[in-house]
Design a protein that fits this description.
Blueprint lengths: L2 E6 L7 H15 L3 E6 L29 H9 L3 E7 L7 H8 L2 H8 L3 H4 L4 E8 L10 H11 L4 E9 L12 H19 L1
Parallel strand pairs: 1-2, 1-3, 3-4, 4-5
The chain binds flavin mononucleotide (FMN).
The site of flavin mononucleotide has 19 residues, from helix 1.
């Protein structure tokens, strides 16, 4: 049986995206799946320096081994489904998440070069939940969703049914929204079903 990887991306412990990650995990477990969790703030991830080393074979990152970026990639590459929960910071994803995203340049390079291990991976779904404090704003999530799509795609992971919630600011705001919680729980169950197939 596979597992569902649940990634929480907020620097703030016990906040809204942690609550979303809990709901994803609960839904997946209710579906009968194994769940493996990671809160990005518990990992050290160095930012990409744009050195260009990964552009040439073997497309390795010079920082691999100096931090936990590869461990986090392994978690997602091995998963039957991924669920990610993040706040919006200045209309995008928080810096600790963006640092990890930029480190996927080596995976992008490997995918472009036709890396057989990546090519052999089945396409799997990524369920995302984004929370933002502002109650309105048409473009609040657009940039983040594009970034998530292109971050996960080289890993064989396709963004499906992103859940976005506005006006969620103080810790506890998400849990006070019963409809939002039900939607995240249901997405967690769908992620769990993927691990049983
Ligand atoms: C540095 C920072 C930047 C933020 N930028 C935005 C923003 O651009 N738009 C918005 O709607 N909310 C913004 N917020 C509010 C958070 O998205 C909101 O508080 C969210 O619920 C935090 O999620 P968490 O509890 O999982 O950390 C920002 C918060 C912080 C700390």
């Amino acid at each position: 049986m596979g597992y569902v990887a649940v990634v929480a991306a907020s620097p703030r412990a016990g906040g809204n995206s942690d609550a979303a990650a809990d709901l994803f995990a609960r839904g997946a477990a209710e579906a009968g799946a194994q769940v493996r969790r990671a809160a990005l703030r518990d990992f050290r991830v160095l930012p990409c320096t744009g050195c260009g080393a990964c552009a040439v074979p073997p497309h390795a990152c010079v920082l691999a081994g100096d931090d936990s970026a590869e461990e986090l990639f392994a978690l997602c590459l091995g998963a039957s489904a991924v669920a990610v929960a993040s706040p919006i910071y200045f209309y995008h994803l928080p810096a600790l998440f963006k640092a990890w995203i930029d480190r996927a340049q080596s995976l992008y390079a490997r995918r472009q070069a036709g890396d057989p291990a990546l090519a052999a991976l089945p396409r799997r779904p990524v369920f995302a939940c984004l929370v933002a404090g502002r109650p309105r704003g048409e473009q609040l999530f657009g940039g983040s969703l594009l970034t998530l799509k292109y971050f996960f795609s080289p890993q064989g992971l396709d963004l499906v049914e992103p859940l976005v919630f506005r006006g969620i600011d103080e810790p506890g705001d998400l849990l006070a929204d019963a409809d939002a919680c039900a939607a995240i729980l249901a997405a967690g169950r769908k992620a769990g079903a993927e691990a049983l197939r």
